[in-house]
Specification:
This protein is mainly beta. The protein is built from 3 helices and 63 strands. Helix 2 runs antiparallel to helix 3.
Length: about 850
């Protein structure tokens, strides 16, 4: 029997929203057979591992001239139409596609998958098998071409090439850059069998080899996963270059790296393969450098650390740390008293093997002490993101307020002293007047109640369904204002109310709902944030797209992520479940004082044959608020969740949303079962017409056995799901009443012994308790007794006495009101009193 389930979330000011079906599992792609190809060639590509890869019949790339078509399997016996071999594609790379790293998405019955990187090269790409685990099976490593292979568990791959004495070998590897789980280790052996180079991954960056050969002969390169793991998700690429002298392949300077990163996401714009691995979202959460500012190049040899290099304000320095010790460079600049100066180092976030630290000192000439006074310092910038998409930058930044006019010294110290001599160690130092701002990042969250358990996921929105997109802000240089977030290019039939990142928050969730009559569309979303507190043009920012690249696992207990070129949404044209789950909620009218509670009724309509409990929980709750998980038992139809506001919660307008966790029955791949059944029926019809046809009975028996296997493989499965129900915008106000103070007439000190200050309360939110009023830090000569406004009363009078010693002029009276609303709280109100002598 078909089960119909209705989930409803209603506020006290109930406004019914459109029904929404349960969101289904979405396509997940974790490994493909080929992740590189040469421009101007074609190749076969197979989807190998992932989840919900059912009926994947499209593969799309971030460059329009990379095209994929699904391949067909051989026709079955007595069938004239070869079936599509879903998950197997022919990929054609046009010769005009520039070299670089692009992305591929799989599209199937459950929507569009997460993206996987795909390298396009102007050199040949050779895929090798796993028959080179011994030295005598070493594969020839041909300079100038790419090799694709996969790490094997407990095995080491061997490659060989001949070098002349004095030649320089440069080996470039890609693994983590491809969302591979492989942590590559490269070991180079000389002709006599000695290990002459051992390169290991450093902080998410794939290793490189740069070696000057000392003797002529055959060298062997060993490649393995550092932890000796292997399998389909452990893909890697290798490229070798041999030069007659020490001329390593050029790596872009950091300004060019930054420019390339900011272009990433524009149509057809790849990331260069030689780009140092940017450190996730932190790589884009960089300060906006002054327009047209050219960097001052710091020469380590020409500028001793004892003579700080003068830099203008604003100023930009391009430098390079020494690799053999903890290095420190010094600079000096002029600033006026009270000026807010943002000092920031950009290095590790753009893939450099560094750990910068900033120290700001008074100039020796300005300091009266023997040693210059330390005014500010910072080791690491704050972590950015969420538990699912999170970066912990090792770069450093200081927001510095000049204590006086004069000169100040900045020292930039690199604390990383364990790295190869050829490791990238460039840095940019920006010293400029503070410019508050922000960057936004958006990603598709994995359906779960724990961000730390996230894994790669795509985005599919079924008719009548709801799905979520997480957006978080990286605030820069003191900015703490609200940010309103919206999707600027919603496809037809999809609605999203937008979200707000409040002043005390760094994230919001956008809930997208689809009309019941949607048309199948693959759409690239554009998300923007606007901050009313900032001046144009920096008040509006387009969100960078991010993607979850890997789940946490035993050897790496953090979720992997990276930037992606696009946030793709697949609007489906058919419901994915035989269950209809409806959601209705009040999206307006949420207003409560600190210390109060909001009760949100919930209702579930179930099929009696398959009752399941439903857990309701709050997500992205404002600080100092809570919404305890509420379980509606399988035999219950109604209840309520309670949104609680602590007395110390901040006031303002905030967004949060409610998630439901339950178990639904997943119907399996009905199309696959139908195809197998239809084929068997066609064979039986042929048998009715020609029962003696040769080979027909064997084909029927085989088709019947295949149908049984398919039926077993496509049996309905119960699956735990996490459903985004509704988002809410709540206004938190200071007190459960509004206060009105009467006006006080002017008085002459000593002539009027007593005044009466009228205080009126407009009670709200059900508050009826007493309120005590007392004068706080009264001016000299002004006194007032503590007064209590009894429970349920609206007005009282506060008597004031003005003695002869009271000061003349307009005085400000501070009144403290104390009450109990979810805990004892106080608020302050002010009144004005004019006193004459």
């Amino acid at each position: 029997m078909r089960m119909q389930t209705v989930l409803a979330v209603l506020t006290w000011a109930a406004i019914t929203a459109a029904p929404a079906l349960a969101q289904v599992p979405v396509t997940q792609m974790t490994a493909i057979s080929r992740q590189a190809g040469q421009a101007g060639t074609s190749l076969e590509l197979r989807l190998e591992t992932g989840q919900f890869l059912t009926e994947v019949d499209r593969l799309v790339f971030s460059h329009p001239l990379i095209q994929a078509s699904v391949l067909h399997a051989p026709a079955l016996p007595f069938d004239i139409h070869p079936p599509m071999d879903q998950g197997r594609f022919s990929v054609t790379i046009d010769a005009a596609v520039p070299p670089g790293i692009y992305e591929a998405w799989a599209v199937g019955a459950y929507g569009v998958s997460n993206p996987l990187p795909f390298l396009v090269s102007d050199a040949p790409v050779v895929a090798v098998g796993n028959q080179h685990a011994a030295a005598d099976q070493a594969v020839e490593l041909v300079p100038g071409q790419w090799v694709q292979a996969r790490c094997q568990a407990e095995q080491v791959h061997h490659y060989k090439l001949d070098l002349q004495a004095g030649q320089h070998l440069h080996v470039h590897s890609l693994a983590q850059t491809l969302d591979s789980r492989a942590l590559l280790q490269l070991r180079l052996f000389s002709p006599d069998g000695a290990c002459v180079l051992d390169a290991v991954p450093i902080d998410g960056a794939d290793p490189r080899c740069d070696y000057a050969s000392e003797v002529e002969g055959t060298y062997v390169l060993q490649v393995s996963d550092f932890l000796f793991r292997g399998g389909s998700p452990y893909t890697y690429l290798l490229s070798a270059t041999v030069t007659p002298e020490a001329t390593p392949p050029a790596r872009p300077a950091l300004l060019e790296t930054l420019a390339q990163l900011r272009r990433f996401g524009q149509p057809g714009k790849p990331l260069p393969a030689e780009l140092p691995q940017p450190q996730g979202v932190a790589a884009a959460s960089l300060p906006t450098l002054p327009e047209g500012l050219k960097p001052l190049v710091h020469d380590e040899q020409a500028t001793p650390d004892t003579q700080p290099l003068p830099i203008p304000l604003p100023g930009l320095v391009q430098g390079k740390f020494l690799t053999d010790r903890i290095d420190e460079d010094a600079f000096r600049f002029q600033a006026s008293q009270g000026a807010r100066i943002a000092i920031e180092v950009i290095s590790q976030r753009l893939g450099q093997a560094t750990d910068p630290m900033i120290l700001v000192f008074d100039s020796p000439a300005e300091s009266s002490e023997k040693s210059p006074k330390l005014l500010a310092q910072n080791d690491d910038l704050p972590a950015v993101g969420t538990a699912a998409v999170r970066s912990v930058p090792r770069d450093s930044g200081v927001l510095f307020t000049a204590p006086h006019d004069g000169e100040f010294v900045v020292r930039v110290r690199d604390q990383f002293n364990a790295r190869p001599a050829d490791a990238p160690v460039q840095y940019l130092l920006s010293v400029a007047p503070a410019t508050p701002g922000f960057e936004l990042f958006a990603y598709v969250p994995h359906g779960s109640n724990n961000d730390a358990q996230s894994q790669p996921t795509g985005l599919g929105l079924s008719p009548g369904g709801t799905t979520a997109i997480e957006v978080f802000a990286v605030r820069q240089q003191g900015f703490n204002g609200p940010i309103d977030v919206a999707i600027k290019n919603l496809p037809t039939g999809v609605v999203c109310q937008g979200g707000r990142i409040a002043a005390s928050q760094n994230r919001t969730t956008l809930l997208l709902s689809a009309d019941i009559n949607t048309i199948r569309t693959l759409h690239t979303l554009q998300i923007e944030g606007a901050a009313a507190d900032l001046p144009a043009p920096g008040n509006v920012k387009r969100a960078y797209a991010a993607t979850i690249a890997s789940a946490a696992h035993g050897h790496r207990n953090v979720v992997g992520h990276r930037l992606t070129s696009a946030l793709m949404l697949d609007i489906l044209d058919h419901p994915m479940w035989p269950t209809d789950i409806s959601v209705s909620a009040a999206a307006e009218g949420m207003r409560m004082a600190r210390g109060g509670k909001l009760r949100l009724p919930v209702q579930v309509t179930r099929d009696e044959e398959a009752p399941q409990p439903v857990i309701f929980r709050g997500r992205n709750l404002p600080a100092n608020t809570s919404l305890p998980d509420f379980t509606l038992a399988a035999d219950q139809a109604a209840g309520h969740v309670e949104f609680r506001i602590a007395p110390k919660a901040a006031t303002g307008t905030f967004d949060f949303w409610i998630q439901a966790e339950t178990t639904l029955t997943y119907p399996g791949n009905q199309q696959r079962k139908q195809l197998a059944s239809d084929y068997l029926q066609r064979l039986r019809r042929i048998q009715e017409l020609d029962p003696q046809r040769e080979g027909l009975k064997a084909a029927i028996d085989k088709a019947a056995e295949r149908l049984k296997q398919v039926q077993e493989q496509t049996k309905p499965l119960k699956r735990k799901v996490f459903l985004p129900l509704e988002s809410f915008r709540v206004e938190i106000v200071e007190a459960p009443f509004e206060t009105t103070l009467g006006e006080l007439p002017p008085v002459t000190a000593g002539e009027s012994s007593e005044l009466k200050l009228k205080l009126s309360l407009a009670r709200q939110f059900g508050f009826a308790g007493p309120v005590t009023v007392e004068l706080l830090n009264p001016p000299a000569g002004i006194t007032a007794p503590k007064t209590t406004l009894p429970a349920e009363q609206q007005e009282t009078v506060v008597p004031l006495s003005v003695a002869a010693e009271a000061a003349a002029g307009e005085l400000t009276l501070q009144l403290k009101l104390q009450y109990d609303f979810g805990g004892v709280q106080t608020v302050q109100r002010t009144a004005k009193l004019t006193v004459a002598k």
